[in-house]
Amino acid sequence: MTTTVGQYAYHYRCPQVFVFDSVHLLVLQFRARDRENIKSPGCPVDCCVIPRHPKYQDQCTIQYALYRLAWRGWMRLSATLANGGSLPVSIGGINRVYEKWSGRPMWEVALGAYEFGQPNGYRRQFIKDQTGGFWVWVDNDGNILAYDTRNCLQ
């Protein structure tokens, strides 16, 4: 099954795929570093099977699973747009990059070493102005360290 679904994921360049047989929703997420890695037998795969009619009160519903798939797709799209020509963000020599399969932003704190938290306690802040506003990275004193406007779809 993962081979066939993996072929769809590869063909459509989407590491998250799902199959619904009117009884169960099967969600697969290939944690691929890139498109070619989806075809690799060693590519880690998250698998979730959700019944149409939940058996337990706190069980994930199909609606919530589809919402999360759409959200993950939005994150990947945002990362693709950010990596595809936006203003790169670097704070104190620490570059922001994006995890390929999820679109989550992370910081390259050293060559090949990544962290998901915000570096050095810096935070992202929205500054409203007459054009609508823009995103910046600020330090603990509110000093602007980097502009992040192009990663925000306006």
What does this structure look like?
- The protein has 154 residues and is of the alpha+beta class.
- The chain is built from 2 helices and 10 strands; from the N terminus they run αβββαβββββββ.
- The protein folds into 2 domains: 2-60, no CATH class; 88-151, no CATH class.
- It has helices at residues 2-11, 62-83, and strands spanning 16-20, 24-30, 45-51, 90-91, 94-98, 105-110, 113-115, 123-127, 134-138, 144-147.
- Strands 4-5-6-7 form a 4-stranded antiparallel beta sheet. Strands 1-2-3 form a 3-stranded antiparallel beta sheet, sandwiched between helices.
- The mean pLDDT is 84.
Number of domains: 2
- What share of residues are in beta strands? 25-35%
Task: Give unreliable regions as ranges.
Answer: none
Could you say which overall geometry the principal axes of the C-alpha atoms support?
Answer: globular
Lateral arrangement of strands in the main beta sheet: 4-5-6-7
* Number of helices in the DSSP assignment: 2
Q: Separation of termini? A: 40 Å
The class by helix and strand makeup works out as alpha+beta
What profile does the largest beta sheet have? Answer: 4 strands, antiparallel
Residue-averaged pLDDT: 84
Kindly state the percentage of residues in helix: 10-25%
SSE pattern, N- to C-terminal: HEEEHEEEEEEE
Report Rg.
19 Å
Report the strand count. Answer: 10
Brief description of this entry?
The protein is of the alpha+beta class. The protein has helices spanning 2-11, 62-83; strands spanning 16-20, 24-30, 45-51, 90-91, 94-98, 105-110, 113-115, 123-127, 134-138, 144-147. The model has no long low-confidence stretch (mean pLDDT 84).
